[in-house]
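Reopening: Cell division protein FtsL still failing for me.
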Amino acid sequence: MIRINLVLLLAVVISALYLVGVQYESRRLFTELDKARADSRRLETEFGRLQVAKREQATSARVQQLARDKLQMRQVTPAITSYVTYTAPATKAAAEAPVPTKGAE
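Support: Ran it again with your exact input. Result attached.
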């Protein structure tokens, strides 16, 4: 009878220790989950802020200001427009070559 009581006592102690370990692991995982949710909320907030900043940076007024300030670009006006035309250089071989006519072969 004492053996059965000792075996049962040992089983109760082992199951109690196992239960404490499982509860500890459960609390640790819950804490980890809570931290992950907080990080997720923080990252979502930061993502929204970055999206707003991205839209702000891409406005046409900002692009024009950067083009003016950093690239020294300016608005096109007829007064500052230069038109470049291309004329083929005359070569000696092209000037000496006979021009074929339609009827002559």
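Residues 2-73 form one domain. If you still see a failure, please send the error message rather than a screenshot.
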